[in-house]
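Suppose a colleague, Dr. K., hands you the sequence of a protein chain of 154 amino acids and asks what its three-dimensional shape might be. Before reaching for any lab equipment, you can write down a predicted structure in token form. Begin with the sequence itself:
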Amino acid sequence: MPEGGGTKLITHNRKARHDYLIEDTFEAGLALVGTEVKSCRDGKANLTDAYASVQDGEVWLMQCHINPYSHGNRANHDPLRPRKLLLHRGEIERLRSAVAQDGRTLVPLRLYFKHGLAKAEIAIAKGKKTYDKRQSIAKKDAERNMQREMGRRR
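The predicted structure, expressed as tokens, is then:
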């Protein structure tokens, strides 16, 4: 998704597309406290071990590390607290039924600000096997070599 139009990237999960086969993506609002917003504006967030889960009809972002705000006081936030994702009821139901299927999980792909509001892009994903990862790496290498050769011939 191109940057612009009031969108500012906070962080993205680089390993998600390598480790998982992405089936469907959703844009969700992110419920943050004040110091988390300020820390996100500084780009101090990490999605490396993060995942999302559906609990009691709500979707939660778990293990997303947002550093405590540097100028915060004793009311600073817990860096690994669960954060609520804001979705429509129908979307939550689709996510719940997809995760109930074998081998599916909810993976956050990126965090960003869109028109001043914190958003998370989450995906329904299926874990790749080792040979799938090797195949995708070999495919990328082949495409890169082909582009390199096309550039040399020009």
